[in-house]
Every structure is written in structure tokens, then in C-alpha cells.
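To: structure desk
From: M.T.
Subject: fold request, one chain
Message: Could you run this one when you get a chance? Sequence is below, nothing fancy, just the single chain.
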Amino acid sequence: MRTEPKLTRLDRVFARLDREPERPAHIDVPKMSRHRIVLIAATAAFYGAIVWAVVITSWLVRLDWQVMFFRPYQQWSEIHWFVDYYVVLGQRGPTAVMVSAWLGWRSWRQHTLRPLLALGVSLLLLNITVGAAKYGMGRLGPHYATIIGSNEMGLGGDIFPSGHTANAVVTWGILAYLASTPRARRWLSAVSAVTSLGVGMATVYLGTHWLSDVLLGWVAGLLIMLALPWFEPLIARAEARIFDLRDRWRSRRTGTASAPVSAPPVVVTPLPADRDDVAARSPRAPAYLAPGPHTARSERAPVTPAGSRRPPHPERLPHGSTSSAHP
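Reply: Done. C-alpha cells follow.
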């Protein structure tokens, strides 16, 4: 009795993904257009301008100190509890869990791993670029400032640019990036911009970041989102590689049926075209039928469309003729 193998939960998940192996036609993958390249160049120039303005202790640093001395958390203390909860929308752990759950459901519905892979690539770029800038410039935050009016650069800090702001731009912006329709992309882009703006202002309110930190965090997150189409071929190859590894793992787990052992080939000699040669090589004694009275057609053996199966006999006479008696 043959029984079907019992599927595990992982097998059922991949079986669901295999139901539609090709990407749905209505999903538009963003491409690196000329317009996007111009935006990347302008955003990178703005990024460099903010860094330079802080390094030379320009008016932007003076504005940072003015906002810090204003102490928004004391001016509007009644909303302090709300801002404490709202700033969580920029923390990497909680936001990554929430967005991963949504994109996991999208992957299930669209039968593709691209949403989760795009999120992973964007977070990896965020950790590399923003983390390197933080530790490379080493700026101290408002609560740890040492000299009034200084830029606090190179003192071992890690707040420039704002990681909360950049993370909010990337994690909520990826929803707009992966939207299936232009209208959904516009709405999600607006929601992402407002959310990341609110997270940046929340860090300034709480005194954990300078205003310039938040500006640079917005620009850093925007650069990652604009450059993400460059990594679409890598995402596609990673998706194909994952499915290929899955297939190999499944074949090793279930085992492949062994091929049957083939018998040695049998040499068959073709028959010659001349049938007289066959008769000469294998002589057979002729068969004789005993003569008898003529029988009616209904009593004779039936004749098939291919002709009579009786062998030819030289002493048989045509129908209707009288047979001579043998002595």
C-alpha cells in the first residue's frame, strides 16, 4: 500500500509559493531611471552640504544649540508621554518586526520572496551606511555636550546622523517602494514622510538629537530608498538561489528513485527484403488438404478482409468446377 509523504509546515509554505512560480504581471519593479539618478545626485550633494555645515560650525550648529536651550520637553511637558511612545516608530527592532509581518503576508499572497528580500537589503544598507557615518564622525548628543557653541565632532559619539530618523524613512518607505499601484505608492509615500518627520521631531523634543542630526538622517534614509533599484538584480538572483537551495534540500530529504538496472542489449537481425530468400533459408514442408466434395459458401471458413488464411494448394480447383476422383 502506497502512502503519501507527510508534509511539514515549511513544505506547505514553499508549496504555496510554488503555486505561481512567475512574478504577477501587475507588480511594477522600480528601475533606475535618469530622473532617479538626478535625484540621487542632488540628495548626495545635500548630504555633503549638511556635513560640511556642521564641520565648519556654521549657522546650522548655532541653530542646534538654540533649540537645545529651548528645551521643548519642558515647554510642552504634557505631550511627553505620547512622544515617548511615538518615537518607537523609529526604533529598528519593533519597526522591523511590524514591517516584516506585513511583507511576509505580501510574499505569501504574491507568491514571491521579493518583499522580504527588499526589506533585508534596505536594512543592510542602512546599517552599513548610517553606522559608518555615526562612528566615523563621532558627534556627541545634546545631553553629553561639552563646549557651548561647538559642533561636538570627533568626541566618540554616535548620533550624527539620526538612526531613528533614517530607520523610519527606510522601514516605512519600503512599503511605498513595494506598492503594487501608483496610487498606493503615492499614499504610502506621504504616510512614510509624515511618520519619519514625526519621529525626527520627537527625538529633537526629547533632547536625544540635534536638529542637524535629524536633517542628515532624513537625507541618509532617502538616499537608500532612491538607490534601491540598483539592487533589484541582486534581489532577483537571491530569490532564485533560495528556491534552488530549497529544491535541493527537498530532493535530499525525500530521496530520488533509483533508476532500474538495464539488461544487456539484444541484437536483432533485420529480415531481408526478399521473402523467397527467407523461405530458402528455412524450408518448410508444404501442407496438403484432403480433396473432398464441393461445399457451399456458408459452410466454408469465413474470409477476412485481408484474404483467406489457408495456404495455397496446387490441386485446389476453382469454385464451380468438378474435382476428378483419384484412383
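Reply (cont.): The chain is about 55% helix and 0% strand. Let me know if you need anything else for the meeting.
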